[in-house]
Amino acid sequence: MCQPLLQSEPEKEAVIKNDKSQRPSIDQMTVSTTSHSGDTVIFENYKQGQLVGRVKIENSNKHTSYTWTGDMNQLMEASFFKRKNTMIYVRANHHLALYDEYKKSVTVFVDGKQVSLEELENVHIRQVAKVYAHKRASKENLYGVAEEYRNNQKSVPELKMIQASTRKPGETDFVIWIDRAPNRLKRDSSYYVFSPFYSGDF
After folding, report:
1. What Rg value do the Cα atoms of the chain yield, rounded?
2. Basic and acidic residues: which segments have biased composition (predicted)?
3. Per the domain annotation, does 18 fall within a domain?
4. Burial class (CB in 10 A: 0-12, 13-18, 19+), 79
5. Do 176 and 120 have their domain in common?
């Protein structure tokens, strides 16, 4: 007579893991949503369809860092369309300059060496190999107004720190790195660039 097959230990574990009774029901889960209104971000938590918590953060953009990266041609195009997230642009004499809104708090490096704004303006667009323009997050801690809801009763709004600043003392709001290709300063037959955003003779 054939004996019934016995479940091995791994099979027993698999049955337990697939047991739906062990899983949390949707009523036990918390659903989070994020909405944006201009420079304000609102985070909300819902449980059983009821709002249980909200955090409102204003002026969120200053706490957000970003980096623009581009080569010579991309910088010329950005300058032509006045895309100021590049922080620098190409002047009519084909040398670089910094947009005024970044001058108050910026550090500029050319080939790994920190330079002044006057030295930056001596860099010809043809020399540019790569540009990294970075906006650092705010030097201030990130705060938000938090509210909790229990039994549909709203608590008193409370100022809550969301994230501590990672800025080091003395760091400027903006930093720019420029890598150059010095051999491109003078045109030769081995390197030719055509760009609708450049009117000079490459």
Report:
1. 28
2. 9-22
3. no
4. buried
5. yes
**Region 13-29 average pLDDT:** 58
Q: Is 186 exposed, middle or buried, given 0-12, 13-18 or 19+ CB atoms closer than 10 A? A: exposed
Q: To 5 degrees, how large is the angle CA 107–CA 111–CA 114?
A: 30
Q: Please provide the size of the chain in residues.
A: 202
Entry pTM: 0.66
Half-sphere exposure of 171 (CA within 13 A, CB side): 16
pLDDT digits (tens, 9 = 90+) for 32-82: 888 888 888 888 888 887 888 889 888 877 788 899 999 999 999 999 999
Are 91 and 151 part of one and the same domain?
no
Asked, for residue 156, whether it belongs to a domain, the answer is yes
**Residue type for 146, please?**
A
For residues 36 and 159, give the distance between their C-alpha atoms in angstroms, rounded to a whole number: 19
- What is the distance between the alpha carbons of residues 79 and 89, in angstroms, rounded to a whole number? 5
Q: What does the pLDDT look like over 77-127, one tens digit per residue?
A: 999 999 999 999 999 999 999 999 999 999 999 999 999 999 999 999 989
Handedness of CA 102, 104, 105, 109 (dihedral sign): positive
